[in-house]
Amino acid sequence: MYLYEDPKWPHFYYDINCCLDLLNAIFLKYGLLLGKITSIKTEDLDLDKLHTNSLADEIVCSSQIEGEFLDRKTILESINVRFSNSFNVPSSAQYEDGIVAMMLDATQNFDEPLTCERLCAWQEKLFTREYVDFYKIVVGAFRTDRFGPMLVSSQKHGQIKVHYQAPKASDLPSMLSEFITFINSHDNHSTYIKAAIAHLYFLTLHPFEDGNGRISRAICEYLLSKAEKSSKRLYSVSAQIQKHKLEYYDIVEKTQKGDLNITKFVRWFLSMILNAIEASLVMVDKAVEKSLFFQKIREVKLSKDQNKIVNMLLDGFEGKLTSKKFAKIAKTSQDTATRSLNYLIDHEILVKEGAGPSTHYLLKFKLQ
């Protein structure tokens, strides 16, 4: 039996006592995050950059969960263009810009009620490319089951496994009406729990031919922005779900085949929110650390390539920095790279370790 076949559908329930530890941790960590941000000097933390990076993470990772890999640089450019109100997006980035537009509508216009028309507009923005797996999908409208029941399936070794069968298209109008009422209502759920329920609820309805997963996560962002009364998204839940993608698929499938007691799913989703906030706390600390580092060396004139290398070292350079790697990154000769590195050594930014082929370079100091 699927969730929607339960006679008491859609009255989900959960044991709040089993969720209190995670809810308390979320409130504590989010309060700590806000406290850090408000206590840090403007010059020590670029809040707009933190916001755009979190949005980019959310968009890129939400698509990755569905097996679609977007170019993060293009997503960031689209976000920045839209925040500048120029809307001068290159034609080559129209697809990515549509996805950005959907997420910005969800997070920036959280005071506006959610409607079926708005959901259809979001789905249309996701699919400026109308073809998926060689067939033309219905865009900007709910599914009609024109090819039969809506199935969520996978294929392995030539065998097709059906994970879930969605409600009939003919039942969607009334079910979506109930869903919209739930989203826009003022109830006794913690908003973090409401985001979890909304995510599962929408996935269970599966009202579109494609894009349901990404739209369900956009709905979560909408509810979280509404709860926090802020359009500044400071953490990405999808980035955490992507890290635990197999767990995610498993718990969604098991919950959809169970009863309306969704305590386990709610706890799992709350843990993803907590992980996301904790990751943002780490990111804020690193951003402040980097700002303080550059303040300490502000008298040193760095070239564009030297600045890039120092930033890479602060962010966690993969492997060891050598003159050969510097030359490749800067697209210059190894002699020029060596001179640039020696300049950084002379100004006590880098130190040289090893000898001969094993020579490499490290930051001389790193603020903690």
Short summary:
With 368 residues, the chain is mainly alpha-helical.
General description of the model:
There is one protein chain. The chain is mostly helical and 368 residues long. The protein has two domains: 3-284, Fic-like fold (Orthogonal Bundle), CATH 1.10.3290; 297-363, Orthogonal Bundle (Arc Repressor Mutant, subunit A). It is built from 14 helices and six strands. The strands form three sheets. The chain has a two-stranded antiparallel sheet. β1 (131-132) and β2 (135-136) form a beta hairpin. α2 crosses α3 and α3 packs across α4. The longest helix is centred in the last third of the chain and has 34 residues, at 263-296. It is elongated and about 75 Å long. The relative contact order is 0.13.
List keywords for this structure.
368 residues; mainly alpha; Fic-like fold; Arc Repressor Mutant, subunit A; two-stranded antiparallel sheet; two-stranded antiparallel ribbon; 57% helix
Name the strands of the widest sheet in spatial order: 1-2
CATH fold name of the largest domain: Fic-like fold
Q: What is the CATH first-level class name of the largest domain?
A: Mainly Alpha
Beta-strand percentage range:
5-15%
**How many discrete structural domains?**
2
What coarse outline follows from CA principal-axis ratios?
elongated
Query: What Rg is obtained from the alpha carbons, in whole angstroms?
Result: 24 Å
| Topology order in helix (H) and strand (E) letters | HHHHHEEEEHHHHHHHHHEE
The H-level CATH homologous superfamily of the largest domain, spelled out, is Fido-like domain
| Extended strand count | 6
| Helical proportion, percent range | 55-70%
Classification by helices and strands: mainly alpha
Low-confidence stretches: none
Look at the structure and give the mean pLDDT.
Answer: 91
Major beta-sheet overview:
2 strands, antiparallel
* CATH architecture annotation of the largest domain: Orthogonal Bundle
Total helical elements: 14
Distance between the termini: 54 Å
